[in-house]
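From the methods appendix. Each design record in this collection lists the tokenized structure first, followed by the designed amino acid sequence. Records were kept in a plain field format so they could be parsed without special tools. The example shown here is representative of the layout used throughout.

RECORD:
FOLD TOKENS (104 positions):
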């Protein structure tokens, strides 16, 4: 990924997360060459990319440390459908079951 900006690396790597797998914001930041504090910028970077037309970012595959998913009432049904379609099980505390096994 040489020659690309941090933001470009984040978008490219996020888009490459395979179906049925998850990664964390911190993992994504570190894989793109930054420290764990950069994880706080991942959502903003991906949101800006989406606004610029990148529509295939699998936001549901990027989770918090420990496997907690980001979810709100507005997107719950759609996200849960995506998780089910990909074989990712979410428990009643909104955490990925078998997180360590499907984390990349």
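DESIGN:
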């Amino acid at each position: 990924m040489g020659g690309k900006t941090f933001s470009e690396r984040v978008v490219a790597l996020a888009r490459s997360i395979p179906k049925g797998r998850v990664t964390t914001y911190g993992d994504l930041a570190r894989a793109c060459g930054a420290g764990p504090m950069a994880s706080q910028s991942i959502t903003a970077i991906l949101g800006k990319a989406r606004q610029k037309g990148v529509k295939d970012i699998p936001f549901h595959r990027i989770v918090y440390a420990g496997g907690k998913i980001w979810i709100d009432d507005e997107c719950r049904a759609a996200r849960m459908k995506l998780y089910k379609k990909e074989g990712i099980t979410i428990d009643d505390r909104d955490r990925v079951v078998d997180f360590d096994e499907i984390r990349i």
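APPENDIX NOTE: The helical segments are 6-15, 25-31, 42-51, 76-86, 99-102.
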